[in-house]
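User: Show me sequence and structure for the first protein, then do the same for the second.

Assistant: Starting with the first protein.
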Amino acid sequence: MINVSENISENGNNIKKVIKGSAFSIIITLIGLLVYSIILSYTSVSESTIPTIVIIITAISILIGSTISTSNIKKNGIINGMFVGLIYIAIIYLLSSIVTGNFLLNITSIIMIITSVLTGALGGIIGVNKK
């Protein structure tokens, strides 16, 4: 027999883990972008690398955050990981849109959304299966 209160408690706990994973991903991104900005400032690295490096930092951050957030759950890692990616990209998109005053979706935005969801799903799979 299914225990409804146990399922509700488990779902609430998973939501907290997804939010924590998203927050952790954002913190990793901020650190990664800070390091990259220092590298750009003090070396001869070309600014043309910015879009590629931002996507790489985003993917690594979400992979780590979704792996951590799903490491202690028993099932639905792919879905929880995807939610980490979705929450992450929604927050980043809103913040960057507010800062730039530009709420347009372009090819870079679409690539970031797809990368975030797929990387979150991969991290969720890794987290659930990690022993």
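Switching to the second protein now.
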Amino acid sequence: LALGITEQWEAILQWVVKELMEYQLVLIVLVTIHEYGHFIFARIFKVHVQRFSIGMGPVIYKRVDKHGSEFALSAFPLGGYVSMITNKLIELEPDIKEQLTSEQIKNTFDSKPKWQRALIMFAGPLANFLLSIFIFSLIFLNTPDPQTTAVVKSVDSSLLMSSSSEPILSGDQIYAINSVVISEPKDISLELLSNAGYSGILNISIKRQGIEDLVDIDIVVNDFLPSAKSQSNPVAYLGLELEYKMKPIIGSLVPSGPAEISGIKEDDLVAKIGNTNISYASDIRNVISKMPNETILVDVMRDGDLIQVPLKIGSSQNLDGKEVGMMGVAFGTKRSLFESFSKGLYETYNLSVKTLQFIGKMITGNMGTENLSGPIGIAQMAGNTAQAGFIPFMYLMALLSISLGVLNLLPIPVLDGGQLTLLGVEAIRGKPLSEKAENFIYTSGALMVGALMIFAVFNDIARFF
């Protein structure tokens, strides 16, 4: 029995070490960006930075720049810090004056106006948000907008209860939840999760074929998404099965392909092929594949006008060697630089708000704390997304950067948000708290962060079993 337990823990230890090795690259990038935010604003306000460290604990490598700031790589890659000269530090270590110029002694951190100190503290999370905006913008610029819409595939009426006279039907498109427009598949789960623990009315706006106006349907919920299982699939808990279909908007054309030769253009919306009305891109494939080498009229919407185009359908062979029709188009539109940046900005804002909401729901008990991941869980996600490809890996990095920015703004002492809170208290009181009070607050904050880290690591290991 003892041998079995030892082997199990040895396997766990090997797994933990492997996952943490993958975690280091992600952590180093995010921490470096975060700490550089603090560093650059300290430099702007002429506060001397004694040390810029990536990692905690003993220094294993360092170099000193022309300003006398030490850039260090420390032994434990579980964070980082920017150490700035303060009056309190000079009082505790008088010998340090010998290493400083008179200008550096004059420009200590705590000698600066409160707004400058606040900006230095806020600059770390700000750098994480800016990194997320940059990554998202880059992703959106280099990937097509799939133009998908959530379509109801089936409804479990035993789960879905509606207080309105209108039921949700198969084929309905989910347009908005509580007035929040759904633009991507993940938006539905995020909006539903943000209502975990809610009792009352969920308003779902749908588009229904044959009806021009939106249809509003009120869903009665009581303690919505009460368990971790329900939160893992909120759409299913609601009683819906969805499929995500692309809009029939031409994204690109195969050069000299049937569609380009016929005069069809990018951004055309295909409305009808022959006598068949087109609602989704999959409808086009279904119609065209059955008509190789035939000529047919295609109705497209272009700049608000309905245009009819004669299309000579091409042909190719499928995997079974059967001849099928082909149009020579791809769906999903290109985004401009401005559209990509705007979407990156909104994505960062939206996910930051959702992160705060989910943290609040964990505190109130409306969302399971088993959703909390520590360094091992993050490392595992990083490894999985790295295998999935560069874009998913970068998307995860943007998400983690948002999480790091939001968590650091929480009003917990030792975090940036806690120091900002203490600055606010100082501004209200007209003087800082006593040294004894500050020491107690910082110690309490350190214990809270440590307990949270231990709990998150426990969650990570628990998933191993």
